[in-house]
Design a protein that fits this description.
single chain, 479 residues, alpha+beta, Uridine Diphospho-n-acetylenolpyruvylglucosamine Reductase, domain 3, Vanillyl-alcohol Oxidase, Chain A, domain 3, 3 domains, 7-stranded antiparallel beta sheet, 31% helix, globular
């Protein structure tokens, strides 16, 4: 059924006029500041939203950059009427292979929806649908507030939210979608609706976990919190060589059952092309004072790392550091992921050795394997039936961030990633894979992404809100 849906979409894109006049179609119905360009025009790259990865990208015939909510409504209505497939994007961080099936579409660039308003008295943050995580840092810090975010400052906040939203403050405040209070959304009919726990509550349930299937969010309001530890964060980094990584994996494993809410542990396998060595870097983040963090830092320091760096930073500085390299454009980001509740040292040593062998035989490969270990304590306090997000019990998020430039490496990278994913799944502590939507590769069954218990209700709501499948190209809720 999924393949049939994509065939229908492909046929729709081919059935429209070979070169429709987008100016004539849209210009009379949108505000004067709205920019429009076809792919053959020199200003297309300025009108279209940028693409982060060159791996399996969507293709566009034209791009439009709306200014107002009414513009988005008009664009959706006109595109639907003329059978023009469309995709609303910001910085193009979706690295799911299903995006490649979006062909000859209209790119709706949400960059102009960049407003950020902090209501410190009522602990509310209202943003436009085109705001990145980095754009909220300064306004929140000035107000003495914080909110859970993703770790890369260049990623669109709304896009990350509706797929879950994981990051370093997750242990204290839960998933990013748990902070969501309400949205304004343009539906498949071109209507502008509000969704919250009180208004269109069924739609609000669906948005929090599967939102890309239901419309274009032009505005979102979140709950924010007083800063933890006056906005200061302890960040430490410890390096271990391949030959002495066992103790570090055992340290990570020691937090399988419980990790304190302010603590984050992120081990990452990387390769140094200068020294030609594979290493394990263990990042330790603590939201609190140095004295409070010290016992955890001492644990890792006692393992005799070959490098150690400890610093006190602000929350925004932390995410700027974590964004180094992650926001670079132009590479092929071919990602795989897996939810885990156990970290088996034997398996991780085996994975690290296989990665080392791959690094040595593929000198142009620059990928990494990381495990993001956050407390799920706050996320688990939210009843499972309150949102469509299915995997609140995940302890750790595994990410194969395969980065390279040469498409000739695709087959080797896929073979390695699938093999390692299978081995890690067997040791993950879960009988069936639990896949975090925002990191999904695109080859996973829907029940592994949305959860078998959530799919029936999601499919019912899809029929109600988007019967013609205008949205959800990355992981459509097939029925």
């Amino acid at each position: 059924m999924l393949s049939q849906l994509f065939q229908v979409l492909a046929l729709a894109s081919l059935s429209i006029a070979a070169n429709p006049n987008y100016e004539d179609l849209f210009k009379p119905f949108v505000s004067p500041g709205t920019e429009i360009a076809t792919v053959s025009e020199p200003d297309f790259a300025e009108v279209a939203s940028p693409r982060w990865s060159t791996w399996q990208p969507p293709t566009f015939q034209a791009a439009i950059k709306p200014v107002t909510e009414a513009d988005v409504q008009a664009i959706v209505r006109i595109a639907s009427r003329n059978k023009i497939p469309f995709l609303a994007t910001l910085n193009g961080h979706g690295s799911n292979k299903n995006y490649a099936r979006v062909q000859n579409a209209l790119n709706i660039n949400l960059e102009n929806f960049n407003s950020v308003v902090v209501d410190a008295v009522n602990n509310r943050l209202t943003i436009g649908g085109g705001v990145t995580f980095g754009q909220i840092s300064e306004p929140l810090e000035k107000a003495g507030k914080e909110i859970q975010t993703g770790n890369a400052v260049c990623v669109g906040m709304v896009g990350a939210t509706i797929g879950g939203g994981i990051g370093t403050l997750q242990g204290l405040h839960g998933l990013v979608l748990d902070a969501l209070v309400s949205v304004k959304l343009v539906t498949a009919k071109g209507d502008l609706v509000v969704a919250s726990k009180l208004v269109n509550s069924d739609l609000f349930w669906a948005i929090r976990g599967a939102g890309a299937n239901f419309g274009i969010i032009v505005s979102a309001t979140y709950e924010v919190y007083d800063q933890t530890s006056k906005g200061e964060v302890i960040l430490a980094s410890f390096g271990f060589p391949l030959s002495a990584s066992r103790s570090a994996w055992e340290f990570v494993h020691s937090y399988d059952e419980h990790i304190p809410a302010p603590l984050v542990v992120i081990p990452a396998i990387r390769y140094n092309h200068t020294t030609q060595e594979t290493s394990l870097n263990v990042a330790v983040v603590y939201y609190g004072t140095m004295a409070e963090a010290q016992p955890y830092l001492d644990q890792v320091a006692a393992l005799n790392p070959i490098s150690t760096a400890v610093q006190t930073v602000t929350n925004s500085e932390l995410h700027e550091i974590f964004s180094m390299g992650a926001c670079d454009r132009g590479g092929r980001h071919n990602g795989y992921t897996l939810g885990m509740k156990k970290t088996d040292p034997d398996t991780m040593e085996e994975i690290m050795q296989e990665m080392n062998d791959f690094y040595e035989t593929h000198p142009n490969y620059n990928g990494s394997v990381s495990i993001q270990r956050y407390s799920n304590e706050a996320a688990m306090k939210v009843p499972d039936n309150e949102t469509s997000y299915p995997w609140r019990d995940i302890n750790s998020y595994l990410l194969f961030d395969n980065v390279y430039a040469d498409a000739a490496l695709d087959a080797d990278v896929d073979d390695l990633s699938r093999s390692l994913r299978d081995k890690l799944q067997a040791a993950s502590g879960y009988e069936d894979p639990q896949i975090y939507l925002n990191y999904a590769h695109g080859d996973e069954p829907l029940n592994q992404v949305y959860g078998a218990s959530k799919l029936p209700k999601l499919r019912t709501l899809k029929k109600k809100w988007d019967p013609d499948h205008s949205f959800g190209f990355n992981f459509p809720i097939d029925y």
